[in-house]
Amino acid sequence: MSFGKAALPRLLAFPKIGTAYNECLYAAVARQGVEIVEGVWAGRWLLENVRRGDIVHIHWPSFLYYDPNSSKQRLRKLTRFFALYAILRMRGGRVVWTAHNLYPHDGGRHVWMHRLVRRFITRDAKAIIAHGPTARKILISEFGIPKGKIFEMLHGHWIGYHPHTISKQDARRDLHIPESAFVYCIVGAGRPYKNLEALIDSFARQDGDCLLVIAGRFPSSEYRAKIDALLAKLPPARIRLAATFIPNDDVQKFVLAGDAFVVPYAEILTSGSAMLGLSFGIPVIAPNMGNMADVITERCGLLYDPDEKDALTQAMRQIKQRKYSSKEIIEYAGTFDWDKSAVALVEAVRAIS
């Protein structure tokens, strides 16, 4: 089936709203003239709404089948997932999967369900979307995806999505941080894969007048307790912890207070958090994993080898000795434009139509 420029297929998004990434992407895709529908993962909805030729765009398939708290529910939901998937395919829907991560963060490759569904989707989907050339290579290697089936699409920036109306001085005043301190920050939900333990350990080894800002909700009370215990070993004056949901208007305060935005993740294929730091003009420290090699350059941050002992500690020391231009970092982040992402997605759809 082929489509001219005036007849693009509908895109059924799973999901369309609820995450910053999807909202920014689909706003840009809509500007390309594509009709976007919020998908509902239910049999009746799929039977009544999926039309032949529709693009079924899935982002995080594990949300459709995996229950981290109940093995009984997991089996039930997995069976339901395959049944509903069969319905949308029977109705003529064509699946496109955007690979935000290699495996879900809950359990990863060690969970057989994740391996099964990943293998299934990478074989059945008409197209796989990767955020850059390094992520593309990793996905091809892991799942044996034919090169012609996988397409690259930039992860867009967050410039303008979060307000940027205050200065670094304002941010530090609100957080009671001295202007003279060198501040490392991380903003986002506190989950185990983000490896806050390594960040805290590396921060504890830093010399001089420095401070650590951690902002974001902790979905797991157990992980929150673990992080609290580690932070309790440090002088309270060196820590600013906001273990709660950060409203959109307040994100700027916690990012702009920093001199370096740290992404110490134990696993990473794509990182919207790294782009958050860049979008505010803050240099980023990240492991040389996934698409970080395609995003972080010497002009906007530092990459470290996650397999090398004390590499994060050294990177945190090194970045204090470097000079960065906030203006140049923001300009660089601006090249990761959502409209470019939308064009890439539409071109991938055209290629399979």
Keywords:
Rossmann fold; alpha/beta; 353 residues; single chain; six-stranded parallel sheet
In short:
It is built from 14 helices and twelve strands. The protein is of the alpha/beta class.
Structural overview:
Helix content is 40%, strand content 14%. With 353 residues, the chain is α/β, with parallel strands linked by helices. It has two domains: 11-156 and 337-352, Rossmann fold (3-Layer(aba) Sandwich), CATH 3.40.50; 168-333, Glycogen Phosphorylase B (Rossmann fold), CATH 3.40.50. It has a six-stranded parallel β-sheet, sandwiched between helices. Strands 9-8-7-10-11-12 form a six-stranded parallel β-sheet, with helices on both faces. Helix 7 (196-204) packs across helix 12. The radius of gyration is 21 Å and the shape is globular. The model has no long low-confidence stretch (mean pLDDT 95).
